[in-house]
Amino acid sequence: MNLWETITGNDLTREWKAFTARAGALPADYQAAWGQITVHLFPYGDFTGRNLTPILDAALGLLEASSADGLSIHEVLGDDIPGFCAALAGGEGARTFRDRWREQLNRNVARKLGRLGG
């Protein structure tokens, strides 16, 4: 990856198109599960989402292998897709972008109030 691709995000676009093509080859129930996985993983992404690329690749690989083995999507993911995604992202206590933004906002407000009150 070169600097230009990093700045423009072309590398992410190319990877996302590859993910979409791979997911399109899956059976319909697996495609629906892939859609839910992406929705539930995006809150764990950083500003660019580059930290999710290996996680999404691994999740899609799991779906491809399970589909090839003839397993049902329920056997692979169970009933709790949000919990599965939280585990992929680093556990139930993994911080989402909302958590990071909330902490930053609280620090900024506390700093401003400290300046006004002191």
Structural commentary:
With 118 residues, this protein is mainly α. The chain has a single domain (3-117), classed as c-terminal domain of poly(a) binding protein (Orthogonal Bundle). It has helices spanning 3-8, 10-24, 28-41, 53-69, 73-77, 81-89, 97-117. Helix 3 runs antiparallel to helix 4. The longest helix is centred in the C-terminal third of the chain and has 21 residues, at 97-117. It is flat.
Feature tags:
74% helix; flat
Radius of gyration computed on alpha carbons: 18 Å
| Low-confidence regions | none
Q: What's the total helix number?
A: 7
Rough outline: flat
Summarize this entry quickly.
With 118 residues, this protein is mainly α. The chain has 7 helices and no strands.
Topology:
Layout lengths: L2 H6 L1 H15 L3 H14 L11 H17 L3 H5 L3 H9 L7 H21 L1
